[in-house]
Amino acid sequence: MLRALTGALRLPRPWRPLQTRSCASDGAAGDPEIQVRVLAGPDQGITEILMNRPSARNALGKVLVSELLEALARLREDQQVRVLLFRSGVKGVFCAGADLKEREQMSEAEVGIFVQRLRGLMNEIAAFPAPTIAAMDGFALGGGLELALACDLRVAGTGQKKRWDRVRREEVKQASSAVMGLIETTRGLLPGAGGTQRLPRCLGVALAKELIFTGRRLSGAQAQALGLVNHTVPQNEEGNAAYHRARALAQEILPQAPIAVRLGKVAIDRGMDVDIASGMAIEGICYAQNIPTQDRLEGMAAFREKRPPRFVGK
Question: pTM value?
């Protein structure tokens, strides 16, 4: 019954560290389109997936999707990953959505298979056992927003920065705010990688319908006002303010008991899909699974001894 309700949640095994590395799959030629970075020092426990496909503004093509799936499969087995952060290595864009140029070369059957694979990618992100954060510095459109919606938490850069144009001899604004939207209807499509399901669960049915029907684009500030993102932050000169805020948010999660955090995620995610009575039962099962852990005993001891707890994920 536990596995039926909470899924195959694996409790931590001894730490097997991952090294910072690029990831390539399917025999793809050229540079890898993502990098997996394992942070150290005060950030130990944070792992980043850096999307870096500048030629296509991080559009979700076959190679990028394959590399993301490979990385997720590998990372979900490492219990030292306490927070997984998605970010962009391309300035001004988080992810521009599906690669429509690539899709134009596909047959209808191939399109169906690829969209199913893309939907599977979003499901893998949503089901990742540790908390996930999307750091949106720049555009997150279509499939890019669907990727962010599959994450547990979202942070967006907002506002504009100024620069001095020496040719025009005047100060000009350079847009750097996150811009997001499910814009598929403006391209003759509809969201096909989870957007029609995750957006209404995030914002409510009526508002989600309005945004999908109109294909409207939102700024970071507008998205926060609607509850689409957890935090916004004024953009900096480097264009990575959302990333720094997301990392600070991850640092708030790191000191907490990792098994309790993961079980809390299971309880919330599974509970949202059922009635409240069933949700309470799921919570009870997750709570019971946490009781035998060393971290629970450490938390009680630290409270009694009035000291910070030292959680080890066991």
Answer: 0.87
